[in-house]
Write a structure and sequence with these properties.
alpha+beta, Jelly Rolls, six-stranded antiparallel sheet, 39% strand, globular
Length: 247
């Protein structure tokens, strides 16, 4: 009877830990490969490019065009093109809106449980040391309601991507990037990503003509905090040990 009870407990603990292992798998909060363009509906309903000073920036554009994405021939990527003129103070900002309750599974309030990843390619120009990012959120399924929350702008290290070197994957932890003291609520149902290419963060120094930078396969995933799962696992193992000791 004791042996049977231990077997049942072993099975129960194994099932419990198995359930936690499934929970520990990454949950895609949202992703975009830009292949559907920016038509409303269903999800992408905003694509804006702006510049700080046209006297420092010329021929700038932001497009999603067939054949520019990573992977399949017909895939689209999001491409910045610009000529940076005499001063290095120009910048380009892209605002990408995701509404209609597009983010899903984002149940944790801890930014450290979230990872941002994207593929990046620099076809021409010079390397880019950083891309600037800000994430905004709205509590409802559209751009209404209060308050609007945001991370504030921070720099993503993109220095590993070389001109003509092909696609490279960039992955960052949102907690490491933004910290957890920001006003952004990752459980919001509407996200807006604000990407910015800053002229002063281009490598090489001096004016740059024909800069062309493309990103693709942008995603935010959520993974439960490893330390929490480890404590739960240790607790379950301790229960099993005590049960065996007392039987």
């Amino acid at each position: 009877m004791k042996k049977l009870s231990r077997n049942y407990l072993t099975i129960a603990v194994a099932a419990l830990l198995g359930g936690f292992a499934v929970a520990a798998q990454a949950q895609t909060v949202w992703s975009d490969n830009f292949d559907n363009g920016y038509f409303y509906p269903p999800n992408q309903n905003e694509l804006v490019v702006s510049s700080s000073d046209l006297s420092h920036l010329a021929n700038y554009s932001l497009t999603a065009a067939v054949g520019t994405g990573e992977g399949e021939v017909a895939s689209q990527g999001l491409t910045w093109r610009a000529d940076f003129l005499g001063s290095y103070t120009g910048w380009m900002q892209a605002q990408l809106g995701y509404s209609g309750g597009n983010p899903s599974g984002n149940t944790s309030l801890n930014l450290s449980d979230y990872t941002l990843s994207f593929d990046m390619d620099i076809t021409s120009g010079v390397g880019l040391n950083h891309m600037q990012l800000n994430i905004q959120g709205w509590p409802g399924e559209w751009y209404g309601g209060s308050p609007m929350t945001q991370t504030g702008a921070q720099n993503i290290d993109t220095s590993a991507v070389t001109v003509g070197g092909g696609w490279q994957n960039i992955t960052v932890n949102l907690g490491t990037l933004f910290g957890n003291a920001t006003g952004f609520n990752p459980t919001d149902l509407t996200y807006q990503m604000q990407w910015q290419v800053n002229g002063w963060e281009l490598a090489g120094g001096g004016p740059v003509t024909g800069e062309q930078i493309t990103i693709d396969n942008v995603a935010i995933t959520m993974v439960p905090e490893p330390s929490t799962l480890a404590l739960i696992g240790l607790g379950a193992a301790g229960m099993l040990w005590l049960r065996r000791k007392n039987s």
